[in-house]
Write a structure and sequence with these properties.
The structure is a homotetramer of 180-residue chains.
Chain A lengths: L2 E5 L7 H10 L4 E5 L25 H8 L4 E7 L7 H8 L1 H4 L8 H6 L2 E8 L3 H4 L1 H14 L2 E9 L10 H15 L1
Parallel strand pairs in A: 1-2, 1-3, 3-4, 4-5
Helix pairs in contact in A: 1-8
InterPro entries (chains A, B, C, D): Flavoprotein-like_sf, FMN_Rdtase-like_dom, ISF_SsuE-like
Organism (chains A, B, C, D): Neobacillus pocheonensis
Keywords (chains A, B, C, D): Flavoprotein, FMN
């Protein structure tokens, strides 16, 4: 079992990253910081004659790094009660990959993976972050990916997350589980 | 009362746009097609010494077109069970505007507006689109904006929306209401 | 296709009933007013040696009236953001029926039915009623029942529902659909 | 600060009760087991000339035991993706109390309390229990009660909850917090 971490945050060492580091401590992972890459929004070409066009950005190269791994950690700060727009653009592009002859097994491969969500927010995340968790549930259900769990942490200012003992405990539990 | 429509879709004449046209039929509106503009993802600089930096994209000019209006229609296809990444990036940037001295009254002005959401999706939108509605509710509550209503339509292939009689009826009701 | 209507309200001719009458106008249905019956809360005996005991109330006789029908309408006022306690007690008892040798095919039979929810509430039902819809979705998914649609109406005082044109339109659409 | 625990479960020493005992260990609390009392469903008499009538059951005496306390723990097994029908009937009756001249300060008093929810379920509670949490949020918001937190535990067979380390940790954290 190997792990890819997909970071959606835009701030280095943000609370979400700090919490996620607890989760993957001592584990070799493939880390992808979406902010360091260009991912263009999808252009919905499902119904055009020529179909989707190559976007010539970093999306495919990121996908190529993710696909070999069995476990995906989606680590995103909660921006406006859901994942960051950066991460959303990444996921939106899956609609293109689902129709891309270069990735004929995309859905099947995603269906064999396990996913976790790690998200930190400042505004009552364990309540107001729930629609985001429900969205991820629908996303993973569509792909057939097992949604194995999530951690919702509370943090606003840098390093706030270290005050959220329940999130830290959940991170250490998940770390054990992933090492297992 | 004047209306701005913020389109988050990436396909011209998509189902969401067709439905929204029913809503605003016969009404002069400011129409913003986010896909025609460059909106960079937010870089969270809340906690850096220098604060947020100008991103030199189209975001502020779009905001300037929206702010004079009392009623905002957020029209987005449902991509992966929420608004498009394009629209999400637009909303994410509000965090910057909230701290931007050029927009000292941003929150107050938003708090005096009414908002509607119009969204069309292909995968059981009246059930699986609900977390998106709950997310918008949290967004509008944060800003103090009145969330006056929403229409969830069903459509996948072009023009499918014209089969969704309940969505069309809701659109005509909202049209009357906005004309009123 | 025949229809059973399960009314969870406690007030005769309440808004939910008025709306539901629009839905079933001109259609012969089996109408069950839960308020006219005694349905005891479940006693969870899954793990006791003797298993569930007969509760000697009206639950089984109600179930016997429902089971022959292909379509179930759950009509409940929104009390405290979900179905009435009366209706909840009725559904809670399904856990007993699932283990009741007198109903060996309970789950299979429920899995062949279609369900609709009709609910009227006074406090922002199209937003604050959504967790109830999501709860019903989980209930029907567990049983394998198709959740074919719902109507959320707004009403507080008697006959308020006649002002909710969208709910009335949805009711007339569903009426056509059920007659069809 | 004193605490009342309102138990909605129907099985003695069920997983929800075991988890809740961890939460209140070493703390004197007022414990109310709803299953030991008769609580009739509400009859909605808001719009009848004579108003609500005394129901002559145990509801008021339970309310009288709860009202003196500042902190309320709602401890319910997850039955069909929400609180038990027993607990729902209890909460439904609040609509009567809100209009009961014997409880003129009901809402004000509830608005000064803090509430926690402790719930154990067998079917993916941290996902499928979320609509219940959102429902409680709406309930507490209506009353003005602070919804201070919740624990969703996993358990099906007796004592399963002792395997849910995150729920147990959250319970011990809440225990410290309540003792504090």
């Amino acid at each position: 079992m190997t792990i890819a971490v997909i970071y959606g945050g835009t701030r280095q060492n943000g609370n979400t990253e700090l919490l996620t580091e607890q989760v993957v401590q001592g584990i070799v992972t493939e880390k992808i910081y979406l902010r360091d890459h260009t991912i263009l929004p999808i252009e919905d070409m499902r119904h055009s004659q020529d179909g989707f066009q190559e976007r010539n950005d970093d999306y495919n190269s990121i996908l190529d790094r993710i696909m070999p791994h069995n476990i995906l950690l989606f680590a995103t700060p909660i921006y406006w009660y859901s994942m960051s727009g950066t991460m959303k653009n990444f996921i939106d592009r899956w609609s293109q990959t689902l129709r891309d002859p270069k990735y004929p097994d995309f859905k099947n491969k995603m269906a064999s993976k396990k996913a976790f969500v790690i998200a930190v927010g400042g505004d009552d995340p364990t309540i107001k972050g729930l629609p985001m968790i429900q969205q991820f549930k629908h996303i993973f259900d569509f792909m057939g990916t097992d949604f194995e769990g999530y951690i919702l942490g509370k943090g606003n200012k840098p390093e706030d997350i270290f005050q959220d003992k329940e999130a830290l405990f959940a991170a250490s539990q998940l770390n054990n589980n992933l090492k297992g």
